[in-house]
Design brief:
Helix content is 39%, strand content 7%. The chain is mainly α. Strands 1-2 form a two-stranded antiparallel sheet. It is flat.
Length: 111
């Protein structure tokens, strides 16, 4: 929990510093690399894939980008959507997600 409290505080400081130093409204994206794994045990899959594939996606973007964001956007398309909207570059691509189930004491405990 201490790590989360520290990181949240630092993130707010960094975003505030970017906003204060920017002569023009910046684009800020904060993303996680994976979601939690709290709803299933090692012996059942349950909702685990959906939970693990869900990530934090927080955007500070111009209105013309905001209106094009969609609930299940993935990191592979976040920047593509911004560039496609603002500069007509990089079209959105189809996303295929893969999921690995760990059947051990921890994800890093390989045998």
């Amino acid at each position: 929990m201490d790590q989360l409290v520290y990181l949240n505080g630092r993130l707010i400081e960094i975003i505030d510093a970017i906003l204060a130093a920017s002569p023009h409204p910046p684009i800020i994206i904060v993303q996680g690399d994976h979601g939690t794994a709290s709803t299933a045990s090692d012996d059942e899959v349950g909702p685990l894939p959906r939970e693990r594939l869900a990530i934090l996606n927080a955007y500070l973007v111009p209105d013309q980008v905001r209106t094009r964001l969609y609930p299940d956007i993935t990191p592979v398309n976040s920047f593509r959507l911004i560039f496609a909207t603002l500069r007509d570059l990089l079209p959105i691509i189809l996303v295929i997600a893969f999921f690995q189930i760990y059947f051990c004491d921890s994800p890093c405990d390989f045998h």
